[in-house]
Amino acid sequence: MSKSNDFPVFLADYGPSFARTAYLLTGDADQARDLAVSALVTVGRRWASARWSQPAHTVLRELYRRFLSDKTSPVSGSFPLASLPPNVRAAVVARYHDGLPPEQAAAITGLWTAILDQETDQALAHLKATHPHLFAGAAAPQPAEAPGRAGEPRQDPEAASPATPAPAPWAAPEAASPAAHEATPWTAPEAASPATPGAPHDRPGAAVDGHGAVDPPGTGPWAVPARAWDAGAAEDDEPAVRSALIRIAGEMPHIHLADAVLRVIGMRRRIRAATWTTLVTGSVAAFAVLTMAAVTAVARNIEQVIAEPGGYPSSYQTPEKTPDAIPAQLSDPIHYASQGYCGNTPNEPANPQPCGQWRLTTVSGAEWRLPGAGAGYDEDTGVVLPLAISPNGRRLAYRDNQGSYVVQDLPTGTLRRIDVDDEQLAATITSSPNGRYFALAFDGEGTTTSALLDFDTGVTRYTTGKEVEVLAVRDDGAQVISERENVDNVPGHAAVTTIELRGAQVYAGGYRIDPDLVAYGGALSPDGQTLALVSEGTHLVTMDVRTGRVSSVRAELDDYEVIAVERWISADEVLVRQWDDDYAFLTKVNVRSGTSTELGSAVSEWLDYDSPIGALQE
């Protein structure tokens, strides 16, 4: 994970809240820490897409999923929630501590929606009967001040609930529960419908007789005394219940998860790459294969040292060499880029020091830095300063130190300005395959405007709409635009996404698609007619950009986590960036056969989670 994004800020704001939720689930501080870290690592590895889709809820779903699926040590009998079955305990915590609506609580706990309230009412009555001191004189907790954007006062992490984040750089409209989806006329890949979550025959903890009947709530070792059951849990009791859970969660020691999470995400790749480079430098290529196992073992040993309380030993820290500034003209195409790291040295993202500037690696292996360009997370504006590289590696687009977005042609040194005011919002930059056009779009709610620069003419065109995102740009300047709009009249969805193809000579589309299809971005085929997208985070699908028709071929991508759809590299192959426990890598997917292969290992050796990519070579 690059240190240039806002993930560390998210961890600082919400990490303690996730730890308290994990403590309510596990009843043990050490298990809670491990559970929270593992959930945050999973989401952090795909932060580039998760940050725009309610990441707090995404982390909660992952945290609950891991709790219910992983084997954990038995909860101490002294823990107030120990007597509740795991799925019921999770339902109580989700509803009354994290404030999730019933549909989402049912979806993540596996309880049937129709009996969720019965189960939670019974559980709360049981807790009141067995632990009355928790509810004695309980008052409704005071609402915490919502976290603001960078530069504004943030809420106290100790009082924050991760399920109710206020608008932040990563906030997004309320997502509908997967359990609430209904058939719609939207375009989406055909897929077998999964079994209804929490159905009686597979609901965890449900007792089923020979006729398929489910035992009524109240049976089992945690059954409520008869007198307590009559009381139930009225809506008026919710503040008292929430206050009691907050009181229990307060037993969790305050811990900072950011260091542990970022260390797991990013350090392994850096250690392995650095160790491998050191060995290869002093060895001949013939011994490379023989020493790979030793390199991996050394890296793992170092990782174990990192996990110790003492942290990362200084003897393994090697200062990064700062490369020379890029020359006025450069004929060597850019292969990829990454942001420099200044360690504990203060650095201003809008005008970074040499150590924090973008590092550009060319196809020949030379390394340069890019002075004059913003790089990193700007705490004053709460945005990440982007860099884009044309697929041929000969043009760069970025925000300069004066706050303007520019495109630089490397062979000639020519600069073109994208004629748009800086909106002080997170921006994405998309290049056409031939590098002639660069589209700039700002992330934000409501009406937004994107700008398209024609580098050859210097002319900028504009597109305005509801939360406009540019998925791809054709070589003729036509753009594939997605617009997201909040709705309250589409069953199972809180927002809809519309796809259009807009250009000076062409217009098509205007159809709705499942919003999840654009969560990982999209790539347009060389002929400009087919859009590659990721469905359900596990399959690559193609869609006719004019009609919205989705191909029946679904390429499997579920071996590793998907980061983003990068580009088409031939008429039949799409490049997808993925991530495993060690490093980011690029996968070639054949859209006709559905087969996939990893792009040459040399390409991925130094590729980071969100490194901009330019010219590629096998």
TrEMBL record:
Domain of life: Bacteria
Transmembrane segments: none
InterPro entries: 6-blade_b-propeller_TolB-like
Compositionally biased spans, kind Low complexity: 139-150, 171-186
UniProt-annotated stretches for the region Disordered: 139-225
Coiled coil start-end: none
Name of protein: WD40 repeat domain-containing protein
